[in-house]
Design goal:
Helices cover 21% and strands 3% of the residues. It is built from 20 helices and four strands. The strands form two sheets. The protein has a two-stranded antiparallel ribbon with strand order 1-2. β1 and β2 form a beta hairpin.
Length: 522
């Protein structure tokens, strides 16, 4: 029998003893143990089954993890070094952690210089890459027990006195402690405009960042050009983009649109020391009462007539805004020439006589409708009166006359229309033919008369009578002449050589051609 066969026979004999007697089994396992376990496992050295399962080497990993539950949790959750290394899933623990090599053996094969921290829950970034392992991993602690919260290492460096909490990474980065990347928009005070350019300590002087008040005045009280007169809510007018760029829009944010010259005024020209508490009276007169050169005569609604661009520029148009267009001379009249009483209190009568009654040269004789003859252009010229539409049309020479030739006054209706009223001094008949000159004469010419004695009287003119002048017969008034009976003796009594012997009818013998001519009586 060879030596190898002898050894094998011995082992089989020992195995048989183990399987037949439990009481001696542990001692036999101890006898075949390759070496002492490390000091941390010393209490398990007599209990091989804690780490080994007979005839099943693959069970060893499970037995390790049953005891090292923290590492088991990492493997299950894929956290920590063992949870992030893919080979841990296939390899036995003993591949890296050899046992039975003595009490003082180091079974954690960690090369700190070559260790890749990416396979941990705390990847080294920025300045952390330059740190020594011992800065975080203490000699009396397991590596996995090293703290991972910023404040665990940097508590003494923390300038906020805990006011910002313990999550330093909310603002800070591991590359540079002072390079904070806090997003202020996640707070109740987003940074807008110039605030983006401000340094954190400009507002957070004591570094306790949640504390500062968020009102403009808390930071900008010294910058307040209004000295507090506009209140503390600067945002009503200003915006963060530019302190001098006011976002307040008077037209949009109030009921008073700033137009024209109003837009050039300073706030305190109208507002008191506390403009946002003012209850402003927006009537023009509330500000411009002293500027009212109408002395209240035109009411308080100045904007009815005036514009905002310039006080003298009026927007009121009498022709459009009233029922009485201003024409001719009326355009040059001052308002108070007609509006004697307050304009908006008394409604004017628009008839001519309401203003011009005292100017009426006709003394009311022509009525009150002055526009029948006159226009607004000029009171005296032109006059549209048509005399032909009266009871006395102007014909012939009458049309060449001036009004005052007949109308000594402008009470025109008082003038008589009979000829004698104007021409009694021109009457060559000295009243013999009464006042109806038109019975013989016409207006074309005084000497162009067209009286027909044959047609217009009962005494036809024949013979020598045709050459007789009117006053040869009409020595008295026409009314008296009408009383003559028409007999020859009425005119020729003095010429009667017969002394009325043959009566008054001379025509029985004589003719009208000649007094000397006697008719043949046969």
């Amino acid at each position: 029998m060879s030596e190898r066969q002898s050894i094998l026979l011995g082992l089989l004999t020992m195995f048989a003893l183990v399987t037949t007697s439990n009481s001696h089994a542990q001692d036999i396992e101890t006898l075949v143990m390759p070496g002492q376990v490390i000091s941390d496992h010393a209490d398990l050295e007599s209990k091989c089954s804690s780490c080994h399962k007979k005839f099943d080497k693959k069970a060893q990993k499970r037995l390790c993890l049953d005891c090292h539950d923290a590492i088991a949790a990492d493997v299950t959750n894929e956290t920590g070094f063992h949870g992030q290394r893919v080979e841990v899933e296939t390899e036995q623990c003993s591949t890296c952690h050899t046992e039975h090599v003595g009490r003082d053996a180091v079974v954690i094969m960690l090369d700190e210089a070559a260790f890749d921290h990416r396979f941990t829950d705390f990847e080294l970034q920025g300045s952390h890459k330059e740190a020594e392992c011992s800065d975080c991993h203490k000699t009396d602690q397991k590596h996995r027990e090293a703290p991972s919260a910023c404040v665990d290492c940097h508590r003494e460096d923390e300038p906020h006195d805990g006011a910002m909490g313990l999550e330093c990474t909310t603002c800070h980065q591991p590359t540079e402690w002072l390079q904070a990347k806090f997003d202020h928009d996640t707070t109740d005070y987003p940074l807008i405009g110039k605030h983006v350019e401000a340094a954190c300590l400009d507002c957070h002087e004591d570094r306790t960042f949640p504390r500062p008040a968020s009102t403009c005045y808390d930071c900008h009280a010294e910058d307040d050009a209004h000295d507090g007169r506009s209140g503390n809510d600067c945002g009503n007018c200003h915006n963060p983009s530019d302190w001098h760029d006011s976002s307040f829009d008077h037209s949009r944010d109030t009921d008073f649109d700033l137009l024209g010259r109003h837009d050039e005024l300073a706030c305190n020209d109208c507002h008191s020391e506390d403009p946002f508490s003012d209850t402003m009276d927006m009537a023009c007169a509330s500000c411009h009462l002293e500027d009212d050169n109408h002395d209240g005569h035109n009411g308080e609604q100045c904007d009815t007539c005036h514009s905002f661009s310039a006080w003298p520029d009026t927007t009121f148009e009498h022709d459009i805004d009233t029922d009485y267009p201003l024409l001719g001379g009326h355009k040059e009249v001052a308002c108070n020439d007609c509006h004697v009483e307050p304009i908006f209190e008394v409604e004017l009568n628009t008839s001519c006589d309401s203003c011009h009654l005292d100017d009426d040269p006709h003394d009311g004789t022509l009525g009150t409708v002055c526009e029948t003859c006159h226009t607004e252009v000029n009171w005296q010229d032109p006059v549209f009166f048509d005399h032909d539409l009266t009871s006395f049309p102007l014909l012939g020479k009458h049309n060449d006359n001036e009004c005052e030739d007949c109308h000594e006054t402008q009470a025109f209706k008082e003038v008589e229309s009979d000829c004698a009223s104007c021409h009694h001094e021109d009457d060559p008949h000295r009243g013999s033919f009464t006042g109806r000159c038109d019975g013989c004469h016409n207006p074309v010419a005084w000497d162009l008369w067209d009286f027909d004695h044959n047609l217009q009287t009962d005494f036809a003119l024949e013979g020598a009578h045709l050459t007789v002048a009117c006053n040869d017969c009409h020595r008295s008034s026409l009314e008296k002449m009408k009383l003559i009976d028409g007999s020859c003796g009425g005119c020729h009594r003095a010429d009667d050589v017969h002394d009325n012997e043959f009566g008054m009818d001379c025509g029985r013998c004589h003719t009208t051609d000649s007094f000397e001519e006697v008719r043949n009586l046969q």
